[in-house]
Each structure stands twice: as structure tokens, then as C-alpha cells.
Amino acid sequence: MSKYFISNVNIILADSIQFGAVSVDSGKIVGVYLTNDELPVIEDDTRHIDGMGKYLSPGFIDIHIHGGGGSDFMDGTVEAFLNIAETHAKFGTTALLPTTLTTTQEQLELTLSCYEKASAKNLKGATFLGMHLEGPYFSVAQKGAQDERYIRDPKREEYTDIVRRFPFVKRWSIAPELPGALEMGEFLIENKVLPAIAHTDAVFEEVERAHQVGFSLMTHFYSAMSSVKRINGHRVAGTVEAGYLIDDFDVEIIADGVHLPKPFLEFVCKFKKHDKIILITDAMRAAGTSVKESVLGPIDEGTRVLIEDGVAKLEDRSAFAGSVATADRLVRVMMNNVDIPLYDIINMISFNPARVLGKEKVKGRIEVGYDADLVIFDENIEVACTIIEGRIVYDKL
To answer: Measured between alpha carbons, how far is 37 from 132 in angstroms, rounded to an integer?
Structure first.
């Protein structure tokens, strides 16, 4: 059945929450009816869904995610892609960018080779919106949990070959201070790939030059990123300060409450415009499971990690190794820790990421003509139903 009438819901709109109903047909939103609007007659071929007074939200869009449900995209199998997509759909994610890690060229290409095959079979999970390459062009000083063996400076013949052979690469995170990084950024923009700043030890002026070239997004803001430091005794601003001072930068935050505790979440929301903040999980394979030990990256050759305190850690506990958050947790943490409206929080995980990916006219809003990517959840952000492009993929109503 492709027609739905969802009633008795608090609809989360761009700038308000209003009680009403929504009609869906052939994967699109075809009607939004608010409190005093006259409701349509429900036809026999339409399924009526009673939202029971819960919230109806645009679907969550995760533009930085590595895994979940026991799988990692770096496993390099179609089955891993599908398992991750289906796992996160249960927690309200309706679209995502599969994300890689710093690795060998062979492993990277193996992962990329799965994308189109998995996309064709992905009928029960979050939609794939393209690939996000995280690395290998990073600062060793800010490597975090990335494998130092494969970190290197940009090589033009390497990245141009990847972009030309795999046109579904939509985003690439790199450190802008590296030799050749700005030239790479220019190439990415020319080829409609979003260059993002990540795992960087850059000072303010280096970030400023990257912004002038066209870098517009900061990957997991604060994490593996330079801040104030001293050079020859002089205090110097870093990447974090640039993220605040240059208004045009979008910043993504891992809002799991661990990577960024309450004061940092409050600080970001106070000093960045809310339409420039994007919530991401940065989830690794243990997300959506209850395991205590896991692997970051390829299952056979990845890094062993511990799962404790609601986060993944390197075994020596020297650094976090990705989150185990699902999208519903991000919304819940923000709602409980930052004094901003729920509709602003939902924009940060729906419309804002859609805009960054150039999808703002089809995803991220509950408006007529938009894709029927919808989530129904209660006041505790417990997901009861997930609809992806008009298909019900999770239903606990």
C-alpha cells in the first residue's frame, strides 16, 4: 500500500509544532492538514495510521556514519551496507551517507564497489545519499582513532581517480593545512564533491584560506580538531575558533552527550546559528547492539575497541573511537541538555543536513511535494514508526 493518512499527531514543522494530519501517496507528502483545516475523505485504498498524539517528524538524515548492528561499511560487503541501513532505520534515520575510514587504497575501493549494488537492494533501510570519505589526508597530530599507518598528504592522481571512477562520492573530509589540500578542495568543488575540514591541526589563517577556496563544513566539530595553542610563545587561534568566527561554516556535532558534554552543546548552540548546526552519530559497528567489545573499521583488520560509558574507546582508553549513538539518542540528548525548541533540534538532524547535501527541496521538511521520509516518536523520542519514501520500514504503533 502506497497511500497513507497519518492523523492525531503533533507535526514538527520548520518553525513550530502543530497538531494535525498528513497524507502520503506514491512516496510523497501530498497533504498537510493543521488543527482547523478540513480533513479529506479517506479512500478505501488508503491506510489510516493513528499517531496517538505522538510527534510526527521529518526523517533523520545522518551525513557521518560508519556502522551499526554489528556491521561497518568498511567490511566491504553489500550485506554490511544493508544491515547498517536497516539497523538505523529502526531509530528514525531515513537517509545517510556511508562513511569510510583511513585505510589502504584496496580496502577503500572494495568498500566503494559495494555502494551501487547495495543501493539497488536497499528497500528496508535508510536511503543512501552518496559516500563520505573520511581520510586518509589527515594530520597525524589529530589522528584520533584513525590508523596512522595510512595517513598521508593528498596525492592528485589518487583522489582524482577515485572521484572520476566513483561519481557517488559526495563528500570528502581532509585536513586543509596539508600540502596540496587546497588544490584538492578546488578539484572537489569543481566535481560537485563537498570538501570538509577534519582531523586537523590547522591554525586560524589556514582554515580561513580553506574557506576562501570553498571548504564550508567542519567534520565532528571539536573532535580531532585544533583549538587555542602557543607557537613561539604567542597564543594562536585554531580550527575551533575559526568555526565560530567564520559564520558561513556549517559544523557537525556528535551530540551523544559524551563526545560533547552539556557545556559544549550549550556553547555551540549559543554561538553558532542554529541553521548551521548538524547532528551526526559518527556511529561505529556497535551502535544498536549491547556488546562490550567491538572493532572499528574492517572486521578482520580493524582496531579493537571497548564499549563503555556510552561510547567506543581505544583499548588503552587514550581516545574515543567513534560513537555508539543512534539518531534518536542525539535528539534526546539535545532536548535534555540544551534550552532550544524541539523543532530547532529536528532541523539540525533533518533539514540542515539535507541543505548541505543539496537535497533541501525534497528532504528534511513536512511539506507538500517533499519525500515521505517520516518518523513518529513519543515525548521520550522513542521511535514508533519509520517511513522512508512512502514505505513503512519499522512499525511499533
So the answer is: 42
Q: Is 161 a catalytic residue?
A: no
Would you call 67 helix, strand, or coil by DSSP? strand
- Say what the alpha-carbon torsion angle 5, 20, 333, 135 is, to the nearest 10 degrees: 50
Q: Which pLDDT does position 40 carry in this prediction?
A: 84
What distance in Å separates the CA atoms of residue 208 and residue 44, rounded to the nearest whole number? 59
Please state, as a whole number, how many other Cβ atoms lie within 10 Å of the Cβ of residue 233: 5
Low-confidence stretches of the chain (pLDDT < 70) are 1
Q: What is the structure's pLDDT at 318?
A: 87
Residue 194 to residues 88, 96, 104, 143, 281: CA-CA distances in angstroms? 24, 15, 22, 21, 19
- Which of 165, 155, 106 lies closest to 131 in space, CA to CA? 165
Cα–chain center distance at 105: 24
Cα(346)–Cα(218) distance, integer angstroms: 20
Residue 385 in grid coordinates: 514508526
Cα–Cα distance for residue pair 26/1, rounded to 1 Å: 9
- Distance (Å, whole) CA 349 – CA 84: 18
Q: Which of 62, 147, 201, 282 is catalytic?
A: 282
Q: In Å, how far are 122, 183, 269, 289, 355 from 345, measured between CA atoms?
A: 28, 35, 10, 25, 15
Q: Which residue has the cell 478540513?
A: 38
Q: What confidence score (pLDDT) does residue 319 get?
A: 86
Could you give the domains of the chain? 3-57+365-395 (2.30.40.10), 60-356 (3.20.20.140)
Cα separation, 279 vs 334, in Å, equals 9
396 CB-contact burial (10 Å; exposed 0-12 / middle 13-18 / buried 19+): exposed
The pTM for the full model equals: 0.97
- Continuous H helices in 170-283: 181-190, 204-213, 239-245, 262-271
- Cβ(162)–Cβ(181) below 8 Å: no
CB-CB neighbours of 160 under 10 Å: 14
Measured from the Cβ of residue 232, the count of other Cβ atoms closer than 10 Å reads 5
